[in-house]
Design goal:
Layout (H helix, E strand, L loop, with lengths): L1 H32 L6 E3 L2 E4 L4 H7 L2 E7 L4 H19 L4 E7 L4 H6 L7 E6 L7 E2 L6 H12 L4 E2 L3 H9 L3 E6 L6 H12 L5 E4 L2 H6 L6 E6 L5 E5 L8 H11 L4 E3 L31 H6 L4 E7 L4 H4 L1 H9 L6 E4 L12 E4 L6 E7 L8 H4 L8 E6 L4 E4 L7 H12 L22 E3 L4 H5 L5 E7 L4 H16 L6 E7 L12 E2 L1 E5 L8 E3 L5 H9 L34 E2 L1
Parallel strand pairs: 2-4, 3-4, 7-9, 8-9, 12-16, 13-16, 19-21, 20-21
Antiparallel strand pairs: 1-2, 3-5, 5-6, 8-10, 10-11, 11-14, 13-17, 14-15, 17-18, 20-23, 22-25, 23-24
Family: Belongs to the protein disulfide isomerase family.
Catalytic activity: Catalyzes the rearrangement of -S-S- bonds in proteins
Protein name: protein disulfide-isomerase
C-alpha cells in the first residue's frame, strides 16, 4: 500500500505541478488579453477602445473618429477612403489624425457618444470628450482631407489689398469673400463657421476700406464670385438680424450652381443622394471627364427640379437647351447681382435686386445617351422618348409631365407656374398587372389596381412596398411569402406587395424600403404603418389583433435583440433597416 501510495504521488506530482504552471500560463495569457492604453494603427488609422481612447484625445489636438460595425456595408466601403485620408494627412505632417472604434465591441464608447447608425464620424478637438463635432463632409478621401484641413488652419484667407483679392478671385471658378467692417463682429464669426463647413469652395475675408470701395460695397456683404452665368452674386448682411449660418449656407449652395446643371452621378458618398440608389444602376460605359454633379444637385436642397431629357448626340435636341436656359433665371430665387464691367471688380458698379421668386426651381439637363440612362427607370422613360420634360417635387418625388407640343421658353414657364400653383396633376407610374396577380398567395398590386384592392371595405389588406434592389426587402421576402400562404384561405385578409420603383400612388408617399401598410376593412380609407419585427409570427399577431400588436412584457436579455429586421444582427440595434429613396 505504501508503495502504491508512493507511485501514485510520483505519477500525480508532475501533473499537479503542470496544472499550477498551466494556471500561471493562463493567468499570464489573460493578462496579455487585457487591452492597454497603447495606441496601435491599422493602415495609418488609430485603433481605439475604451482603454486608450482618453490617451488618444490627450495626444492629438484634432482627432476624427469613425464608429463602425464590421458587418456594415457602408463602413466597408468607407474603410479604404478613410485609410487614404489618414495617409494623406500624415504625409502633410498635419496635426489632424484619424481613428476608428468598433462600436459593436466597444459598447460603452458607443453609448457614451450616442451612436445610432453606422458609420458615424465625430471630431474631437483639444481633448474635449463631452462635445464632439459631427462630421458633415463627403464620405470619400478627398472630402475627409478637405474637411479636416479647414479645421487645422483658418477657415478663410485674409485678403489685405486689391492685388491679393484679385489673385484669390482668379484662383478658382468659384470663391466666396466676406466683406466686414469689423472682423471680430458676430456676423464675421458666423461667416467663419460657414466657411469651416463648406469645404468644397475657398473662402476669403476682407475689412480694408479700399476693398469695399473697389467692389462697390458700403456695408457688410458676402460676395460669391464665379466664372459662369452672371459672374457674381451678393448677399448683404442684415444690420438688424445679422447673419444666419443656415440661410447663408443655403444661398451659397443654390447660387454656386450653374443656372442649368448637367446630371452626372457620384461614385459613392456614404449614402445615395439620387432618387434611385447607386447600387440599382448598372455601371456606366461612359467615362466622363466632366465633374460629378449629383452631390451638388441634391445637396442644394432646392425643392423643385425641372429636368430636360435629351440626346446630346442629336444636334436638333441639343438646341432645346437654349430655350431651357432662358427660363432658368426667373426661378432661381432672390439674389442681388452684379451688372456691368468685370465681375471681379469695378468701382461704383451698378447693382439691382432681381429674379425675386419665393420658390426655387433647379434646371437640370439629363443626357439619355450618357449618364442619364441610369435614371430613366425612375421616371418610367426610355431613350426613345427624348426629348421630354419632367418637373419633380423633391419633398414627395411627385413627377409632372409637360405636354410635348412645344418646348418654347413661354411654354416651359407656363408649365412650371401651373405645377407650382397646384393646377396640374402628377404623372403617376404604373406597371401592367400580371395575369395571375390575384391568384397568388401574395397578391401583386400595381398603380392601376391598388385603389380597388387596398380600399376594399370588406377586406383587411396588408401591403409590402418594396424595391427589387433593396437588400432588406430581399431578406424578408421568404417571410412575406410564408405569410401569404398562411392567410391565402382567409376571406377577409389579403397579403399583397407592390414594386414602388415601377408604381406610384397619388396620396401615399413611400420614403424607404421596405414599407408595410395595413388597410383595415370598413369605411374611411384608413391606413396603419407597420413598424415592428419582420417575421411571420409578429406579422400574424399584428393581423390577428386587428392592425396592432398586443402588449407584452419586455424580455430580459443581456444582448438586446435586433427587432427591426436589419440585414445583419447588431448588438446595439442600430443597424440601418430600410433603404432610403
Amino acid at each position: 500500500l505504501v508503495w502504491l501510495l508512493v507511485l501514485a504521488l510520483a505519477w500525480l506530482g508532475p501533473a499537479l505541478g503542470a496544472e499550477e504552471e498551466d494556471g500561471e500560463v493562463v493567468a499570464e495569457e489573460e493578462d496579455e488579453d487585457v487591452l492597454s492604453d497603447e495606441l496601435e494603427e491599422e493602415d495609418g488609422v488609430l485603433v481605439l477602445h475604451e482603454h486608450n481612447f482618453a490617451r488618444a484625445l490627450s495626444e492629438h489636438e484634432l482627432l476624427l473618429v469613425e464608429f463602425y460595425a464590421p458587418w456594415c456595408g457602408h463602413c466597408q466601403r468607407l474603410a479604404p477612403a478613410f485609410a487614404e485620408a489618414a495617409t494623406t494627412l500624415r504625409n502633410e505632417s498635419s496635426p489632424a489624425w484619424l481613428g476608428k472604434v468598433d462600436a459593436t465591441a466597444q459598447v460603452a464608447l458607443a453609448n457614451e457618444f450616442g451612436i445610432t447608425s453606422y458609420p458615424t464620424l465625430k471630431l474631437f478637438r483639444g481633448g474635449n470628450r463631452t462635445h464632439p463635432l459631427a462630421y458633415t463632409g463627403r464620405m470619400d478621401a478627398k472630402g475627409i482631407v478637405h474637411w479636416m484641413q479647414r479645421r487645422v488652419g483658418p477657415s478663410a484667407t485674409l485678403l489685405e489689398d486689391a492685388t491679393t483679392a484679385t489673385t484669390f478671385i482668379s484662383s478658382r471658378d468659384l470663391v466666396v469673400i466676406g466683406f466686414f467692417k469689423d472682423l471680430e463682429s458676430e456676423a464675421a464669426q458666423v461667416f467663419h463657421e460657414v466657411a469651416s463647413e463648406m469645404v468644397d469652395m475657398p473662402f476669403g475675408v476682407a475689412e480694408a476700406a479700399e476693398l469695399f470701395e473697389a467692389y462697390g460695397l458700403s456695408a457688410d456683404t458676402i460676395c460669391l464670385f464665379k466664372k459662369f452665368d452672371e459672374g457674381r452674386a451678393d448677399f448683404p448682411v442684415d444690420p438688424v438680424q445679422g447673419l444666419d449660418a443656415a440661410e447663408l449656407t443655403r444661398l451659397l449652395r443654390i447660387h454656386s450652381l450653374e443656372l442649368v446643371m448637367e446630371y452626372t452621378p457620384e461614385v459613392w458618398a456614404g449614402h445615395c443622394p439620387v432618387p434611385i440608389p447607386a447600387r440599382a444602376m448598372a455601371p456606366s460605359p461612359h467615362p466622363s471627364p466632366a465633374p460629378q454633379t449629383s452631390d451638388q444637385i441634391f445637396g442644394a436642397k432646392i425643392p423643385h427640379h425641372m429636368l430636360l431629357f435629351l440626346n446630346k448626340s442629336a444636334p436638333a435636341q441639343l438646341e432645346l437647351r437654349d430655350e431651357f436656359q432662358k427660363v432658368a433665371g426667373a426661378f432661381r430665387g432672390e439674389v442681388r447681382r452684379y451688372h456691368g464691367g468685370d465681375a471681379a471688380g469695378g468701382r461704383g458698379a451698378p447693382w439691382h435686386l432681381c429674379c425675386v421668386s419665393p420658390t426655387q426651381v433647379l434646371f437640370v439637363v439629363v443626357d439619355v445617351a450618357g449618364y442619364g440612362a441610369e435614371v430613366l427607370p425612375f421616371f418610367g422613360l426610355t431613350p426613345a422618348e427624348a426629348p421630354t420634360l419632367r418637373l419633380v417635387k423633391m419633398e414627395n418625388n411627385r413627377k409632372y409631365q409637360m405636354d410635348q407640343d412645344t418646348f418654347s421658353d413661354t411654354a416651359i414657364r407656363d408649365f412650371i407656374r401651373a405645377v407650382l400653383d397646384g393646377k396640374r396633376k402628377p404623372h403617376l407610374l404604373s406597371a401592367e398587372p400580371p395575369e395571375d396577380w390575384d391568384t397568388r398567395p401574395v397578391k401583386v398590386l400595381v398603380g392601376k389596381t391598388f385603389e380597388q384592392v387596398a380600399f376594399d371595405e370588406t377586406k383587411n389588406v396588408f401591403v409590402k412596398f418594396y424595391a427589387p434592389w433593396c437588400s432588406h426587402c430581399q431578406a424578408m421576402a421568404a417571410a412575406w411569402e410564408e405569410l401569404g400562404e398562411r392567410y391565402k384561405d382567409h376571406e377577409d385578409i389579403i397579403i399583397a406587395e407592390m414594386d414602388s420603383t415601377a408604381n406610384e400612388l397619388e396620396n401615399i408617399t413611400i420614403a424607404g424600403f421596405p414599407t408595410m401598410h395595413y388597410f383595415p376593412a370598413g369605411p374611411g380609407r384608413k391606413m396603419v404603418e407597420y413598424k415592428s419585427a419582420r417575421d411571420v409570427e409578429t406579422f400574424s399577431k399584428f393581423l390577428e389583433n386587428g392592425g396592432t400588436l398586443p402588449e407584452e412584457p419586455p424580455a430580459v436579455s443581456e444582448t438586446p435583440e435586433n427587432s427591426t429586421g436589419s440585414e445583419e444582427p447588431s448588438p446595439l440595434g442600430v443597424a440601418e433597416t430600410r433603404e432610403e429613396l
